Amino acid sequence: MENKELTMDLEITLDRETPEGAGMGGHAQIESITDSATGDDLTSSVDQGLFFPDEDPSKLEKYLKEKFGDDVTYSEI
Length: 77
Fold this sequence. Notes:
Layout: E1 8-15, H1 17-21, E2 27-35, E3 52-53, H2 58-68, E4 72-76
Parallel strand pairs: 1-4
Antiparallel strand pairs: 1-2, 2-3
């Protein structure tokens, strides 16, 4: 019997003001992150100090997959 994993869908709030103030315009940091299915706050599971370039969203996606598994999806709120 095949064991299928469920997709984890995350809701993410990104902070673009702090990176801008640090001279990193065009980047964002994760401000908060929530599991959309359960409402669980997962913010403490990520490094909020990391900068992700707006022009390359694959870097944020790769980071989230490393943290939460390959079947993770996300939307910015």
